Amino acid sequence: MSVYFTPQDANRILPEVKKLFSSITIQKNKVIKLQEELQRMVNDGTKFTPFINKKQELNNAVFKLYQIIAELENKGVMIKSVDEGLLDFPSLRFDEEVWLCWKEGENEIKFWHRKDEGFMGRKPLATANIIDR
Question: pLDDT averaged over the chain?
Fold first, then answer.
């Protein structure tokens, strides 16, 4: 997918992206909880039927997690880290492909970085000369 976002484009869809990212975080925590419950069941020697039911519940939760991730990434947004709350939007700076960078808790897209830099290489958008189609 060759979608390039301007800062305006990215900020326009950010409310929807934030909602999806929140759903991913909630679903990820549900998966972790179910994994812990399943491990307790193994440790406690639980019978097959409740174990299998819990395993199917976990499978469904993992499936739903991947569906939400796919929904977000189908918008052209890349998840860099769920745990750290990092998302990147592909963009152009002159002829160079770069990432517009968002961190959970930020209200708008204000930073960018080169493809090989990552979060530590973030720079303010004011210095970016990001191409507006």
Answer: 92
Q: pTM of this prediction?
A: 0.87
87-125: string of b/e by CB count within 10 Å (b at 16+)?
A: bbbbbbbeeeebbbbbeeeeeebbbbbeeeeeeeeebeb
pLDDT at 1 over 50: no
User: What count of other Cβ atoms lies within 10 Å of the Cβ of residue 77?
Assistant: 24
Q: How far apart are CA 53 and CA 131, in angstroms?
A: 52
Specify whether the CB–CB gap between 78 and 87 falls below 8 A.
yes
Cβ atoms of 7 and 90 within 8 Å: the answer is: no
**Distance, CA of 41 to CA of 28 (rounded, Å):** 20
Q: Whats the size of the chain, residue-wise? A: 133
Helix, strand or coil for residue 133? coil
108: which DSSP letter?
Answer: S
C-alpha torsion sign, points 122, 124, 130, 133: positive
Give yes or no for residue 69 having a pLDDT over 50.
yes
Q: Which residue has 């860099």 as its token pair?
A: 80
Which tens digits make up the pLDDT trace of 100-118?
999 999 999 999 999 999 8
